[in-house]
């Protein structure tokens, strides 16, 4: 007999070799019908895998993230089976689950698949799912695995197997389809009820531009039609909120292939939006003791060799710039921290001088592959709201918590009210990708864990997600559609001060190393603005809106009064524009609504005669008439208090 410990701490005994599915059936047949996989001793496995020793057990259903992931991974296999049936000879690459659904990379040779073909693949998947085929796991030798896929003619699987050690290879079979896979999988295909293949894209094999371009088919599945319908409704809303679409419609930013892929250019309205966000954070930073600095867009290669960034990222970055001086190399700045280390080192520091807080809206450049670029969320040039704090070890926790307060201030001001703080720590086993001593890492990780706990943050721990030089607290923000985005980040770093030999003179008159805290509440302006656009559907809070007021004269007779109103608003520092087109007032109002301008002032002859304005609020309609003094007071009160997005 073995002891099985459940999440609530209860312990039950079962015979060795029992499966999670058997255990679920012993509790309730209804529960067993919902179990997709199981977590045994913290590892997600097939619900049909035997358990032979004492273990902790969590039964995973559709309500669990790991349950969804397992079903979507199994759905990728089901799609591959359908593709082999419809397109004989198709070659298969990778088919993982992703945050929302799954994909499979395939090579069709000379054939192509279009969006119109997806329905036929969906139909085939439904047909196959109804067979309730079991997902069967089999351990297989490397030689047999190679023989199977060589005979089948699947070169991508053969390449993958060649890199695997013997004794670690497993196949999964469902119906007439067998795939190389670690698993886990759901018990059978019958759990997959509702299917939607969402899009087609190109993807280089293994993400390498030197390899062949494969076809990537994305999809998602659900255990019932109701949830699929709700998801599709959400997707349609997301399309309306797409920052690339709204950015063009609202004239915020643009891209040019001649300038370069992934290099956004900001139009006047977008530039003003950026500047207001910068001023908003700069004011908060100055009040918190930050010192503004400016550093160059390039740096000597040796700067990044010293920091360790060149060793870790040099091959994947923009390559060094060679000058006429032999052997002299510069790099486009991939991050601001090495420059700030040199700024700190520029003058002697006493323990009384610390903490030193350098802040910079610094533009950095990182090479992203063509296929990874996406609007403002994945670009090659972006501006970080970066700051680096240099403090004594006894100041770390207090400074870290002050940064948390600043991040909360930013989120609350912009109506990001749902977020999780992800504590990103080192990989538990593989330490090779990190620099620095075990002692320093332990100190840094402990500081983050304690600070987050004392601030009462809703936290999750993710191992293996730390930066190479230190652990992080990453803020995962949920937007209005329930999607999660990684925005603000705070990092504790004992390593760069070592590498740059940073010092301060302590109260004991001895030399000591400062601790470095990296922080960026926005993360990057580009990504933050993209998320903000989609979160508020382009309806920015009044204090941020590029145009706060649109003045709508009903006819040419009130044009002079409209210009007088515009002048008064300008003097009150309210951003206003006149719509002087020869259009009916109804169309002007509709167009202003579409442009998502917060306020409209409709001016007819009565308004001009009485020296008043008829006020309309975006999405709310008519607010009645007001004097200009009343209206400017209304707007300024809303701006000063930074009222949240409604």
Automatic annotation (TrEMBL):
The answer to whether the entry has keyword Transferase is no
Alphabetical list of PROSITE patterns matching this protein: AA_TRNA_LIGASE_II, TGS
Cofactor list? Zn(2+)
InterPro entries assigned to the protein according to its UniProt record, in alphabetical order: aa-tRNA-synt_IIb, aa-tRNA-synth_II, aa-tRNA-synth_II/BPL/LPL, Anticodon-bd, Anticodon-bd_dom_sf, Beta-grasp_dom_sf, TGS, TGS-like
List the subcellular locations.
Cytoplasm
Q: Which Gene3D superfamilies match?
A: 3.10.20.30, 3.30.54.20, Anticodon-binding domain, Bira Bifunctional Protein, Domain 2, Threonyl-trna Synthetase, Chain A, domain 2
Domain Aminoacyl-transfer RNA synthetases class-II family profile: where?
Answer: 242-541
Q: Which UniProt keywords apply?
A: Aminoacyl-tRNA synthetase, ATP-binding, Cytoplasm, Ligase, Metal-binding, Nucleotide-binding, Protein biosynthesis, RNA-binding, tRNA-binding, Zinc
The UniProt entry, under Pfam families, shows:
HGTP_anticodon, TGS, tRNA-synt_2b, tRNA_SAD
UniProt catalytic activity: tRNA(Thr) + L-threonine + ATP = L-threonyl-tRNA(Thr) + AMP + diphosphate + H(+)
What residues does Zn(2+) bind to? 337, 388, 518
Explain how, and how many, cofactor molecules are bound. Answer: Binds 1 zinc ion per subunit.
Metal-binding as a keyword of this entry, yes or no, is: yes
The EC number(s) this enzyme carries: 6.1.1.3
Q: Which SUPFAM superfamilies match?
A: Class II aaRS ABD-related, Class II aaRS and biotin synthetases, TGS-like, ThrRS/AlaRS common domain
Q: Give the matching CDD domains.
A: TGS_ThrRS, ThrRS_anticodon, ThrRS_core
Residue ranges annotated for the TGS domain, each copy included = 1-61
Which molecular function GO terms apply here?
threonine-tRNA ligase activity
How it assembles, according to the record, is: Homodimer.
PANTHER family named in the record: THREONINE--TRNA LIGASE, CHLOROPLASTIC_MITOCHONDRIAL 2, THREONINE-TRNA LIGASE
**Which family does the entry's similarity section mention?**
Belongs to the class-II aminoacyl-tRNA synthetase family.
Protein name listed in UniProt: Threonine--tRNA ligase
Organism name: Chitinophaga qingshengii
């Amino acid at each position: 007999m073995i002891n099985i410990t459940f999440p609530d701490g209860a312990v039950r005994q079962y015979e060795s070799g029992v499966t999670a599915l058997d255990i679920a059936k012993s509790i309730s047949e209804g529960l067993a019908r919902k179990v997709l996989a199981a977590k045994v001793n913290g590892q997600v496995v097939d619900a049909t895998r035997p358990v032979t020793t004492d273990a902790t057990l969590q039964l995973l259903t559709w309500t669990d993230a790991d349950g969804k992931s397992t079903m979507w991974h199994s759905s990728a296999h089901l799609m591959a089976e359908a593709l082999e049936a419809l397109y004989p000879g198709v070659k298969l690459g990778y088919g993982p689950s992703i945050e929302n659904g799954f994909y499979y990379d395939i090579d069709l040779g000379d054939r192509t698949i279009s969006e119109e073909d997806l329905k036929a693949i969906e139909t085939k998947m439904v047909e196959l799912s109804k067979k309730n085929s079991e997902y069967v796991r089999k351990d297989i030798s490397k030689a047999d695995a190679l023989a199977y896929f060589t005979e089948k003619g699947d070169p991508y699987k053969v390449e993958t197997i060649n890199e695997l050690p013997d004794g670690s290879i497993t196949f999964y079979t469902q119906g007439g389809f067998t795939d190389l896979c670690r698993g886990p999988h759901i018990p059978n295909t019958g759990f997959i009820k509702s299917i939607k293949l969402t899009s087609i894209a190109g993807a280089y094999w293994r993400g390498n531009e030197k390899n062949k371009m494969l076809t990537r088919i994305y999809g998602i599945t659900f255990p019932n039609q109701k949830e699929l319908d709700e998801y599709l409704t959400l997707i349609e809303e997301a399309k309306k909120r797409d920052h690339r679409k709204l950015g063009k419609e609202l004239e915020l930013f643009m891209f040019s292939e001649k300038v370069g892929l992934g290099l956004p250019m900001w139009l006047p309205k977008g530039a003003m939006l950026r500047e207001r966000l910068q001023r908003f954070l700069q004011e908060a930073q100055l009040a918190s003791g930050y010192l503004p600095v400016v550093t160059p867009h390039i740096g000597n290669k040796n700067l990044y060799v010293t920091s360790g960034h060149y060793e870790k990222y040099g091959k994947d970055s923009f390559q060094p710039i060679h000058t006429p001086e032999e052997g002299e190399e510069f790099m486009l700045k991939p991050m601001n921290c090495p420059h700030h280390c040199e700024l700190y080192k520029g003058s002697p520091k006493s323990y009384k001088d610390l903490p030193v807080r350098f802040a910079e809206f610094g533009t950095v450049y990182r090479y992203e592959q063509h296929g990874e670029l996406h609007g403002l969320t994945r670009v090659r040039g972006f501006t970080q709201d970066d700051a680096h704090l240099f403090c004594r070890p006894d100041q770390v926790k207090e400074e870290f918590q002050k940064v948390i307060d600043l991040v909360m201030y930013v989120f609350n001001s912009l109506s990001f009210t749902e977020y999780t703080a992800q504590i990103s720590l080192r990989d538990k086993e593989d330490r090779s990708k990190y620099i620095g001593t075990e002692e320093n890492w332990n100190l840094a990780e402990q500081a983050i864990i304690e600070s987050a706990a004392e601030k009462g943050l809703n936290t999750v721990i993710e191992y293996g997600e730390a930066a190479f030089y230190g652990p992080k607290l990453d803020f995962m923000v949920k937007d209005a559609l329930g999607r999660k985005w990684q925005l603000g980040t705070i990092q504790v770093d004992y390593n760069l001060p070592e590498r740059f030999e940073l010092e301060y003179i302590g109260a004991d008159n001895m030399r000591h190393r400062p601790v470095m805290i990296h922080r960026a509440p926005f993360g990057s302006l580009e990504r933050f603005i993209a998320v903000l656009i989609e979160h508020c559907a382009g309806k920015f809070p009044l204090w941020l809106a590029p145009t706060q007021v649109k003045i709508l004269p009903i006819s040419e007779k009130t044009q002079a009064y409209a210009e007088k109103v515009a002048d008064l608003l300008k003097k009150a520092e309210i951003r206003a524009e006149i719509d002087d087109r020869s259009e009916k007032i109804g169309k002007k109002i509709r167009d202003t609504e579409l442009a998502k301008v917060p306020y409209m002032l409709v001016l007819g002859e009565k308004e001009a005669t009485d020296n008043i304005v008829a006020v309309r609020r975006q999405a709310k309609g008519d607010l009645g008439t007001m004097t200009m003094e009343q209206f400017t007071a209304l707007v300024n009160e809303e701006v000063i208090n930074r009222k949240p997005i409604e």
